[in-house]
Amino acid sequence: MKKKYMEYSSALILIAFGAWGWYETSTWNVPVSSGRLAPTTYPRILFTAIMFFGGVILVRTLVKTLLQKQASGELEQPVDIHLLHVAGTVVLFVLYILALRAFGFLFPTPVFLFLSMLLFGERKWLRMVLISIIGTLV
């Protein structure tokens, strides 16, 4: 069971890393020259391959999980809830990083902490607000 989580995590990390690489190469100020390859070409090829193979790992693991659950008759929940939490956390973290660049530290951090606690099942609103604010100030 732990191997499946490692495969999901590895695939999501590879996809996120490839997307980050594409974003970073788009920020390079490189003059466009006709008839030549730009310095961003080879890194983008590598980042595309990394995202592709991350997608292959993710699809292969999802298919394997679905086939195993279908064979055992446990098809009620095709995607494990922990996988959704991991994916949600990765998306939330990427949005947090982008918000840090746009708004600084003090506004996005309590929002990120609050939404992370909400994502993982905390339902005591006062505790969530206090932890988010105090955690940011510390």
Structural class: mainly alpha
| Main sheet summary | none
The CA-CA distance between the termini, in Å, is 37 Å
The count of DSSP E runs of length 2 or more, i.e. the number of strands, is 0
Give your account of this protein's structure.
The chain is mostly helical and 138 residues long. The chain has helices at 2-26, 41-72, 81-103, 108-119, 125-137. It starts with a helix and ends with a helix. The mean pLDDT is 82.
Can you give me a brief rundown of this structure?
The chain is mainly α and 138 residues long. 76% of the residues lie in helices and 0% in strands.
Write the layout of secondary structure elements.
Blueprint: H1 2-26, H2 41-72, H3 81-103, H4 108-119, H5 125-137
Helix pairs in contact: 1-2, 1-3, 3-4, 4-5
Tags for this model:
0% strand; mainly alpha; 5 helices; 138 residues
